[in-house]
Amino acid sequence: MTQETAPPSRLEALKVACSACNLRELCLPVGLTDDEMLSLDDMVSTRRSVKRGESIFHAGDPFAALYAVRTGFFKTVVSASDGREQVTGFQMAGELIGLDGISTDRHSCDAVALEDSQVCMIPYGQLESLSREFTLLQHQFHKIMSREIVRDHGVMLLLGSMRAEERLAAFLLNLTQRLQARGFSASALVLRMTREEIGSYLGLKLETVSRTFSKFQEEGILEVKQRDIRIIEQSALQRVVNGTSA
Amino acid sequence: MTQETAPPSRLEALKVACSACNLRELCLPVGLTDDEMLSLDDMVSTRRSVKRGESIFHAGDPFAALYAVRTGFFKTVVSASDGREQVTGFQMAGELIGLDGISTDRHSCDAVALEDSQVCMIPYGQLESLSREFTLLQHQFHKIMSREIVRDHGVMLLLGSMRAEERLAAFLLNLTQRLQARGFSASALVLRMTREEIGSYLGLKLETVSRTFSKFQEEGILEVKQRDIRIIEQSALQRVVNGTSA
DNA sequence: CGGAACCTTGATGCACCTCAAGCATGGTGG
DNA sequence: CCACCATGCTTGAGGTGCATCAAGGTTCCG
Predict the structure, then answer these.
(1) Gene3D superfamilies per the record (chains A, B) (predicted)?
(2) Mean pLDDT throughout B121-141?
(3) Which residues of chain B have a CB within 8 Å of the CB of A197?
């Protein structure tokens, strides 16, 4: 349950190299020159394995580094004082986790692995110095933070003014789009999260998520077998999101 | 209720000095040395007046600068393709507007003045170069972006799992806390936005916002006269937020 | 093979939305 | 300066989308 900063028994003999990583076009190094990439390689020197259910960090933990998802799948969760929880995002390969920690030097959410995963550790102090040196890195980092803000505003729109079907349709389209950018099929996906986690993210109860999946299936938009989803009619999903279907 | 630090009887849109601004402890310059502050003064050289109802920028506009609220009050609004709108935030003196634009070089929301206001323009390219030079400025800027992310996550929690009374109570407590940080009373405030705008922000209809205000008044928690709000029992509001009152 | 975690589906209730009507406020022009 | 009108606010009555409660089914794994 507690985070292990240096996994004791696991030898990370592999030197992690951004320059050799197949995610470099999606991750922090986008657009860097070869020189700059080599400096990144120095900074991002540790990879950490996280088992399903384990957390990279918890709310309240001191902030020291960002984490880039190398393989696997994560959720971030904020908690209210009364125990209510809200999933604020799902992160897949190439995405950055931990930006929340910069503001107060402590993390404000939990980052939990939804399957066995690996993350690359990016010591924050070093990122700041390196991005003073490399304009492109600096700009790319700012873009990533800004993108998170824009994404959050989209979620607010979803939570504030969409109905259950619209929320789930938007969620599925977003997931497939990101999976597609990583070379996966646009029409078949395996959900890494439970109905309850989807519900938490979308501001719905798990029963409503389940019913909505069933409804989409009845309508021939999806084929749903537990966590295996096949999208039969993407355009129909798009229409649902736009409210053009009710 | 509007604060005017230096009543601008002349055209003062010329020279702005962060170093002389009473908001410098809340705004971008937090923690800078005198030297650094002077460089900021060079960068933030234009102030712009915005009349009530006007926008600093619209969704789709090219991104070139950030704006620090000098006086007045703003809302930011994102729109879906079908016309649905969501207020994503309300900004007051010392707060930064426009961070959304970095991600795609275009703004993704509208920033609308809710009263006659003034903003300081911070050319983004210059901010990037200056923050390559000044570590503290760089860090402060990152903190501001991160804070926005954390705030957004809090709004998601609110939208995803709180009921109407809890949302409004949380909203009022947040407003008064920010006003208090600016030297205003913690118990009396004048709302700069309509019930509809509050509702949009909180994911509620204006009638629900109005009814909830009335309910708080009946319960002796607030005194509500249109946009004049007096908080009679702050602890009760806090209890409502925590769900300890239902 | 048995239990835990997860998912589906049905019945019922309620929080909030929708629709509607009337009141308050403030800006504007005669 | 006042009358007028647009905009915003309040309140009521009724409807509905989703939550809640409940029961049973499926899958995974020790």
Answers:
(1) Jelly Rolls, Winged helix-like DNA-binding domain superfamily/Winged helix DNA-binding domain
(2) 97
(3) none
Residues A129 and A170 in one domain: no
**Of A135, A156, A162, Cβ closest to residue B155:** A156
Q: Indicate the average pLDDT of chain A.
A: 92
Confidence of residue B13 (pLDDT cuts 50, 70, 90): very low
Residues B58-82 have a mean pLDDT of: 97
Per-residue CB contacts under 7 A with strand C, chain B residues 174-203: 203
Please give the torsion angle defined by the CA atoms of residues B119, B145, B53 and B214, in that order, rounded to the nearest 10 degrees: -120
The values of phi and psi at residue A93, to 5°, are -50, 135
**A184, part of any domain:** yes
pLDDT in the model for residue A244 = 80
To test the contact with chain A by mutation, choose from B96, B127, B157 the residue with the greatest count of A C-beta atoms within 10 A, namely: B157
**End position of a domain, from candidates B126, B158, B190:** B158
Task: Say if A143 is an interface residue toward chain B (CB within 8 Å).
Answer: yes
Tokens of A56: 């990279």
Q: What is the pLDDT of residue A246?
A: 58
Confidence of residue B7 (pLDDT cuts 50, 70, 90): very low
Pair A75, A130: CB distance under 8 Å: no
pLDDT at residue B10 tops 80: no
Residue B205: domain span:
162-241
Instruction: Report the relative pairing of strands A117-123 and A65-71 from DSSP bridges.
Output: antiparallel
CATH of the domain at B193: 1.10.10.10
Q: Average pLDDT, stretch B88-105? A: 98
Of the candidates B130, B128, B144, the residue with the CA atom closest to the CA atom of residue B96: B144
Q: Are residues A31 and A144 in the same domain?
A: yes
CB B58 within 8 A of CB B68: no
Cβ atoms A108, A78 nearer than 8 A: yes
The total of structural domains in chain A comes to 2
Same domain assignment for residues A24 and A132: yes
